[in-house]
Amino acid sequence: WKTKEGLVRGCACRGTAGFSHVSCLAEQAKILFAEAEENNLGVEAANTRWRRWDTCSLCEQDYHGVVCCALGWACWKTYVGRPEMDNARCFAINVLGDGLFVANHCEDALTVREAELSMERRRGASEEHILAVQGNLAATYQKLRRFEETSQMLRDVYSGHLRLHGEENIQTISNANNYAVSLNGLQRFEEAKALLRKMIPVARRVL
Questions:
Q1: pTM above 0.85?
Q2: CATH top-level class for 126-207?
Q3: Is 151 exposed, middle or buried (0-12, 13-18, 19+ CB in 10 A)?
């Protein structure tokens, strides 16, 4: 059938591979995930099929730019009518936030990320998942050059991982480093040095 919609390619495919209409990519993702739900194919199969919303089925690379953003909106529009406790709706708001972020629509991405965090707290999501959402929110603040809020959020993420996993954990060490970098950027050098002096010996033992 004919359409005025242009062909796009927002992945790592080369040559003639990877070109498609955004609407076709969205329809494929919608159908694949619906089949997984309807046929009870299990969590692994459902997750693999869900990846079609943000990953090319040919090169297996994430979509980027306007293609990622367009698929984010298509994904959200597909599942927004579901109840808030529905997992697909939860995943969809994350896909939308990612799409807006990579397309540099950062103010819109911030609104979505903040809504996602509030929603996940209402849903009673695990602390691990909350920390992941907060990490995305910190990255969005960073891109908007809202550095004080970036640092505050990174502090919360680091503290959360420290509480959950202890200091001898790769995620804790990584998030401590992120927080220290943010402190350094704010010229809070003594705080950054104190944190790094604490974590460097730990990193040497663990890494």
A1: yes
A2: mainly alpha
A3: buried
